[in-house]
Queue: 3 jobs
Job 1
Amino acid sequence: MDLTFSPKETAFRDELRAWIAENPPEPEPVDGGEDAKHRWRRDWQRRLYEAGWAAPAWPTEYGGRGATLTESAIYFEEIGRARVPLPANTLGVLLGGPTLMVWGTDEQKERYLSPILSAEEIWCQGFSEPEAGSDLASLKTRAVKQGEEWIVTGQKVWTSGAQYSKWCMLVARTDADAAKHKGLTYFLMDMEQDAVQVRPLRQITGEAEFNELFIEEARIPDANVVGGVGNGWNVALTTLMNERAGLGFALQIRLRQTLDDVIAAAAERGLLENALYADALADLHVRCESIRLLAWKGLSDVERYGQPGPEGSLVKWLWSETNQRLTQLAADIVGADALTTGEEWSYELLRARGNTIEGGTTEVLKNIVAERVLGLPRLKAAA
Ligand SMILES: Cc1cc2nc3c(=O)[nH]c(=O)nc-3n(C[C@H](O)[C@H](O)[C@H](O)COP(=O)(O)OP(=O)(O)OC[C@H]3O[C@@H](n4cnc5c(N)ncnc54)[C@H](O)[C@@H]3O)c2cc1C
């Protein structure tokens, strides 16, 4: 893997850097809560879209730039370096769009991809249920065919951004008699119907980023099945692999910035001379670098195999643990301020708790790495 940029890649980076410098986002709103922040990020995505920067990795026919993987990595690095937000429709751009590109029909690609990029239609991910998180295949939400429609009833939970979403990537059981992975189907469900109730769940940070979804005989046209009836497990895996690989790359850049901020906070307090802190910061630096190189390796894998591989799980696992260590160290360095509501470090410290759960828990990711990356035997239940 050669990380030196070619003249074309350097030109790509310079063009993006210049565009961001000339078109910075509006300042982040301080009033108006989460809704105002969402509007602000949505407006930013619209501007990225108009300039062709919402998702450079997408093919040009769908509104991207057909950027290479290296250019795509440069994109995330530059967005991170400039400290501007990611597109508001993160789940649509990083998960939903790429899943449709693999499994969607031409009509579905034509209908859904462009409004994802322009942030006209926000997407959410309706996978987890009260009794199906890690073991997603045991989900109970059921869909029954009636004429040209599917009637869906069930409950989803932890659905991030559902309150702003037009479309939900929904996995439901369509065959109760089939083996549990085989009886699932992947749908695009219109959230704007009375049969879908969205109830916010408040987190430790005070914000309600995710929700419960109560679905009572919602209707989904047959044309909104993605990848074929009974094939939902395979389609969902595409979404999950994109989640771990795509987000992993963006997040490792944010991790580096947080580490730089912590180093600056330690320097301000004269703590870099303290062996205890210097040691902890050096350890985090080494971790950040390994995660960065693993994320780059993940991109090479996509180049080689066409889709992200299970190694994305390794990046997600290491990132979440490192971010928790880092925000804990920040709290030790900053002191009481980090425990004060509304302070930046207190938010970072509390939000990091969910990192080892969201997008696959650390325990489950370790199983994936053990079995599918290292090729170790599956753990058998004790007799
Ligand atoms: C901030 C945040 C945002 C989220 N957003 C979404 C979203 O938008 N859409 C969505 O569908 N979901 C979302 N989730 C849900 C997330 O995917 C689940 O929480 C996660 O998959 C774990 O499922 P669970 O909570 O049911 O825990 P469980 O699966 O019940 O796990 C409980 C514990 O058992 C452990 N465990 C379970 N199985 C195994 C095993 N085989 N081996 C070893 N240990 C095991 C787990 O590691 C965990 O510690 C979000 C979660 C968070 C925290």
Job 2
Amino acid sequence: MRITMIGSGYVGLVSGACFADFGHDVTCVDLNEQKIAALNDGIIPIFEPGLEALVAENAKSGRLKFTTSLAPAVAEADVVFIGVGTPSRRGDGHADLSYVYAAAADIARAVKGFTVVVTKSTVPVGTGDEVERIIRDTNPSADVVVVSNPEFLREGAAIDDFKRPDRIVVGLEDERARGVMTEVYRPLYLNQAPLMFTGRRTAELIKYAGNAFLAMKITFINEISDLCERTGADVQDVARGIGLDGRIGSKFLNAGPGYGGSCFPKDTLALVKTGQDYDSPLRLVEATVEVNDRRKRAMGRKVIAAAGGNVRGKTIGILGLTFKPNTDDMRDAPSIAIIQTLQDAGATIRAYDPEGIEMSKSVMQNIEYAKDAYDVAAGSDVLVLVTEWNEFRSLDLARIKSTINEPIFVDLRNVYRRREVEAAGFVYHSVGRPVAHEHADKVAAAE
Ligand SMILES: NC(=O)c1ccc[n+]([C@@H]2O[C@H](COP(=O)([O-])OP(=O)(O)OC[C@H]3O[C@@H](n4cnc5c(N)ncnc54)[C@H](O)[C@@H]3O)[C@@H](O)[C@H]2O)c1
């Protein structure tokens, strides 16, 4: 298959490289000239484990190309994927579909012969109808079928997710397109990945319903963790206790500083707006959005409380800035609201992230960047673990203790055990694991 991918960001680049790896001929298109120039020089503009080697290998074989010229790439394609961004629209939280619609018009002008146009971007239910209308209005003679194929990959594990998906969802109402999509995904299909065909609108909604459900699950355990703190229960045991129930499942039950990232915040918000537009409010999702928004600043206040109630003139050391480990993506990262809250209260911020510092510089100001976790701790008054990168999981606590001003450690990801941090001489704060009830933990350790 000759595949053209419009948009070469986290989704477009990974999908394009993986399709090329399946043996298809892929051209990745992007408006951003610097991005394409970098890719043509073998430089990957984002951090995603394994991507550099995958791109290099497939570019070398000639199956993967990069260009800013959309028209020729579309003209020769059997399948054109739209993988452009759908951020929150400023002001009202609807998905901003202007990039998708612009791509649809560009495709319509360039298309030649029968072509399947596939929306891979996350788009509200009904967007496929509008993409189809734009293509027909722009080029009435275009022989095009519009399909929905939402993407479920997770940054940080994107290649593995793409190559070993739980399912592939394809929404269409046309048999010719069904044959083409089966061919596109044949290598995965042969690998037993379930290929689920459904209606186009249903496929669009599956993506939002999935993300909203996961965001709700995270938010649920976060609220339970607050209740644990008030009542003396331990959220990790609660999560384990409920997660072992097969109907609930153990994933996405880690209490923390609230969800962030490029998808959950904007997708939950967009789904809320869709529900309102169709007079079918999604009150659970509305509550999820509100609770999560409040939680991020509340985590900043938790740090202030741990510092004794006042951080003016103090230096707060931050470990991890990206919204999760193994990505450089800073979009809607909880660290942004936490750091803002601390800066508003007069704190100086000293931070380190293994991959996110460059991106962080474009979204936050007045941060002293350190070269590693120990460099953050030296001269800080409080150390806060915000993103659980592997290199923060087994820190030399004695070494940190010897350089930090005050031995206060706030672990917003519950990475450490209280007894080991306290044994190293720290005052330890975590999420949903109150002091009194780690007594059992201590007893177990002593036994
Ligand atoms: N990032 C994820 O983990 C993830 C996972 C699943 C789904 N999605 C969805 O996939 C879509 C893309 O997300 P992303 O994170 O890859 O975004 P991104 O911002 O990293 O990439 C989008 C790219 O599209 C390019 N672009 C915009 N308009 C264009 C046009 N008309 N022609 C050519 N290029 C154009 C931009 O320059 C940019 O490089 C979004 O709808 C998102 O919700 C993202």
Job 3
Amino acid sequence: MKQIESLNKKIASCKKCPRLSGYIKEVAKNKVRRFNEEKYYGKPLSGFGDINAKLLIVGLAPAAHGGNRTGRMFTGDSSGDWLAKVMNKYGFASIPTSQNIDDGLLLKNAYITAAVRCAPPQNKPTKEEMQTCFEYLEQEKKILKNIITVLCLGKIAYDASCKLYQVKSEKFGHNKLFQYDEIKILTSYHPSKQNTQTNKLTWRQWSAVFQRAKRLTK
Ligand code: SF4
């Protein structure tokens, strides 16, 4: 527990990427109108969940007005709604919503993290920023000793996970499973509005991935 707490403290105060450090502060200051009354978190985000988990869920990065506002990944935006709902359906989450850091959401047998810990402009981190932030994924991997399946939400998460487990990145697609000696890597389209509102990712496809993740982590 101490190890993860000390890693999370280190992440929260990280300023290694000047562009992203500046951006998250700027977003926190110049809020969108609908959240004008709220105090934004505006710092890098650590992962969260069950440190004894067998399932590691890797996203791209916090959302500017989602995690960067609420202080927890996949919280307070539509991606978070999709994730909490499906995780609750398959027993990985205590409640079907993820609204704010005090909502009582607890994860079971799952840990949520991301390839990059600061919200990037247009959701596009640079290669250098991804490389700089990679050390935090490596440190989480060392602490989360029971992980047997990694679920990657989107291509950037998939590439980071392949690098993490030192396996060759294959052609990315939805609900693909790559099995290696050390790890199973499962892929999904990211539950961003861009994908869910265009039906690139339907609820049925999304649910099927978690059904599979559940089987793989029993
Ligand atoms: S993206 Fe990662 S490495 Fe870069 S400043 Fe944020 S926490 Fe630090």
